[in-house]
Amino acid sequence: MLINGQPSHLISALDRGLQYGDGLFETLAVINGKPALLDRHLERLVAGCQALGMVQPDINQLREESRAEAAQTSRAVLKIILTRGEGGRGYNPASTMTPTRIIHTTPWPDYPDDHARVGVAVRLCDTRLGWNARLAGLKHLNRLEQVLARAEWSDPGINEGVVLDGADNVIEGTMSNLFLVKSGQLITPLLDQCGVKGIMRQVVIETARDLAIKAEEQQVRVDDLKAADGLFLTNSLIGIWPVRVFDGVEYPVNLIDQTLLRTVISKGFATV
Ligand SMILES: Cc1ncc(COP(=O)(O)O)c(C=O)c1O
User: Fold this and answer.
1) CB neighbours of 113 closer than 8 A, spacing ≥ 6?
2) Is the distance from the beta carbon of residue 230 to the nearest atom of ligand 1 less than 6 Å?
3) Which of 22, 56, 120, 193 sits in a 20 to 30 Å window from 248, CA-based?
4) pLDDT per residue as tens digits for the range 94-111
């Protein structure tokens, strides 16, 4: 683990990331010792810093440190955490604070390989996401909603949970974004009030549009999920998981256009 560029496991208890969840993070796949889509993740981090009014990090330094940390392993998860830093008075942040950089790898999760092939089982969570247009889309450090939603089930046969907002709109999975396949077109929930704008979600939208497959962000309700031809989940580690069953409804898992699937996987796990 690198903390501010130095091998360490320790940060100050006064760091605002711990005190207030005041910061951002990225989770990347490491493949053959290299982080996948590193530049896209760093761009999202910089955009998040702008949105939160944090001091801009040195991107070249973050890139070098991320590559150095990833090079210690072959297949792993790389996490980049950037907090606003240490200090300020209560909630009031000082404008000059130096961000804290935490970069570390963890073992690759033991997701069975066949999830991508045979699909996954998904439930509907009770925990709701709160609206906050200023935080919507950001991968900020406040993840209590996801922690509570994920704690709702312990059945290992359930692979993911769909989370709604307080107005019954479908937003995403606890750790993933969600797409509906309907008459060959793709629909993904609007994330203007809550939810994380995932990197893999963006790769899917861009790739679909390149292939002239309509891909739209829309308001989505649970009935829309149940009426869809198919569903799939995305994130930077899983790539694409088709949904086999959601809340008692079964779906075919081979509905995703094969060119789209192959292109998303090759783009989504590219290491240069
Ligand atoms: C709540 C949530 N939504 C969406 C995503 C997908 O984001 P990405 O595609 O950037 O991995 C994640 C990833 O961890 C997440 O935690």
Assistant:
1) none
2) no
3) 193
4) 878 999 999 999 999 988
